[in-house]
Amino acid sequence: MASTSDIKNGLCIKYNNDIYKIIEFLHVKPGKGPAFVRTKLKSLTNGKVLDNTFSAGHKIDEVRVENHKFQFLYPEGNEFHFMNTETFEQISLNKSILDSPDLLKEGENVMVSINTETDLPLSVDMPASVVLEVTYAEPGIKGNTATNATKSATVETGATVNVPLFINEGDKIKIDTASGSYMERVKE
Questions:
Q1: DSSP assignment of 14-42, as one string?
Q2: Average pLDDT over residues 57-69
Q3: Is the separation of the CB atoms in 122 and 168 below 8 Å?
């Protein structure tokens, strides 16, 4: 058993007969009344995010997880196939377990959290950013914008990302996996 003082980002807990991962937390000590911890929890079974407040000192049920490095092999319908880079064991996970499956390129390395009690995969942590090639982009016309104009572009995984007007087909761009937004153009 852990308490609210042990709460940190990425901690997996049992709550309401489900397993949740803490995405965000904020320890609040108001001027009047007891302290509390405001959290944002993501369900590892259905992907729903909920806000919850724990009073200070509240006991929480921690779930022991191990993180293993897996390589993404290929998608098949709603199933995504991964291979453990150390044991070469293959697993298939449902698309709903991934945060941004449309940004996952074949051969990409991810961290998979596995429950040590049941040996079941709980979540997939994508890298902070991915570099993908633009396969389709409307041509940007110079001079018809005021500031910060964007256009939509399709990348090699099929995802659509808003990019600045100077991005063309064939360019490689870095994308933030948390928000799915354009970060920068990558020169080789």
A1: EETTEEEEEEEEEEE--SSS--EEEEEEE
A2: 88
A3: no
Residue 41: exposed, middle, or buried by beta-carbon count in 10 A (0-12, 13-18, 19+)? buried
Among 71, 62, 185, residue whose Cα is nearest residue 126: 71
pLDDT tens-digit profile of 51-62?
999 998 889 898
**Residues 96-115 pLDDT 10s:** 778 788 888 889 999 988 88
Residue type, 58: H
The Cα-based distances of 36 to 18, 67, 79, 115 in angstroms read 22, 29, 40, 28
**Which domains, from first to last, does the chain contain?**
11-55 (2.30.30.30), 65-125 (2.40.50.140), 129-185 (2.40.50.140)
| Of residues 81 and 139, more confidently modeled | 81
- Most distant pair of Cα atoms in the chain: their distance: 61
Q: Are residues 154 and 164 in contact, defined by beta-carbon separation less than 8 angstroms? A: no
pTM: 0.73
Number of Cα atoms under 13 Å in the Cβ half of residue 58: 18
> Residue 51 and residue 67: Cα distance in Å, rounded?
25
Q: What are phi and psi of 101, to 5 degrees?
A: -65, -25
**Which residue shows structure tokens 């944002």?**
40
Q: Report angle CA 128, 99, 179 to the nearest 5 degrees.
A: 55
